C-alpha cells in the first residue's frame, strides 16, 4: 500500500500517510460488531486512553473513524489503516486518494501556469524589442507596460474585473499595435 501511494501522493502528503501507516502497527484492535458492516475498537499504541471506533462496510470497502482525520485532512488515519490491514485490504481504495493531494493535480496546475507565463514572456520580449528602438519608444513602452501591470493588479483586487473587460483589452491591443507599427 505504501509503495502504491508513494507514486501517487505529493511528497508532503506521502510523508503524512507514511507516518500514519507506521503508527498503525502500534495500534491494537478488537472487533465489537460483525457482519457486512463491522465495527472495531482501535487503541493507539502510544496512549491507551485514546480509543476510536472504526466502522467498515465490507461490500463497499467504505470506512469511517471516530477521529475524523480523513474528513478533516483528506488522509486516512492509523486506525483505519489498522482495520484495512486486519481485513486484508492491501490496495488503498481510490475514493480515499483525494485528487488535490496527488502529483497529477499539482503538475496540471503548474503546467497551466507555466504555459501562460511562457506565452506572456514571449509577448513581453516582442514589445521590449520594439520599445528599445529609441528613447521615445522606450518611454512609451515602459508607461504602457506599467499601466497594463496596474490593470492586472486592480483586476486581481476587484472580482468583477477578473475576466478582462473589452475596454481594457481593446486599449491594450491598440497600444501594442501602435508599438509594433511605429
UniProtKB/TrEMBL annotation:
A GO biological process held by the record: regulation of DNA-templated transcription
Signal peptide start-end: none
GO cellular component: nucleus
Annotated localization: Nucleus
Domain SWIM-type: 52-88
Keywords on record: Metal-binding, Nucleus, Zinc, Zinc-finger
Family: Belongs to the FHY3/FAR1 family.
PANTHER family given in the database record: PROTEIN FAR1-RELATED SEQUENCE 10-RELATED, PROTEIN FAR1-RELATED SEQUENCE 5
Name of this chain's protein: Protein FAR1-RELATED SEQUENCE
Species lineage: Eukaryota, Viridiplantae, Streptophyta, Embryophyta, Tracheophyta
Amino acid at each position: 500500500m505504501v509503495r502504491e501511494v508513494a507514486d501517487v501522493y505529493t511528497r508532503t502528503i506521502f510523508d503524512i500517510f507514511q507516518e500514519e501507516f507506521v503508527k498503525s502497527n502500534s495500534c491494537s484492535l478488537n472487533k465489537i460488531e460483525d457482519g457486512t458492516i463491522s465495527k472495531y475498537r482501535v487503541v493507539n499504541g502510544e496512549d491507551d486512553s485514546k480509543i476510536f471506533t472504526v466502522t467498515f462496510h465490507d461490500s463497499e470497502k467504505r470506512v469511517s473513524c471516530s477521529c475524523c482525520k480523513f474528513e478533516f485532512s483528506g488522509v486516512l488515519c492509523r486506525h483505519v489503516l489498522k482495520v484495512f490491514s486486519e481485513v486484508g485490504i492491501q490496495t488503498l481504495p481510490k475514493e480515499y486518494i483525494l485528487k488535490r493531494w496527488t502529483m497529477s493535480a499539482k503538475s496540471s496546475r503548474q503546467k497551466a501556469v507555466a504555459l501562460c507565463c511562457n506565452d506572456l514572456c514571449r509577448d513581453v520580449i516582442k514589445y521590449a524589442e520594439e520599445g528599445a528602438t529609441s528613447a521615445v519608444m522606450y518611454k512609451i513602452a515602459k508607461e504602457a507596460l506599467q499601466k497594463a501591470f496596474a490593470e492586472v493588479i486592480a483586476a486581481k483586487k476587484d472580482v468583477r474585473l477578473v475576466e478582462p473587460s473589452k475596454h481594457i483589452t481593446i486599449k491594450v491591443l491598440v497600444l501594442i499595435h501602435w508599438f509594433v507599427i511605429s
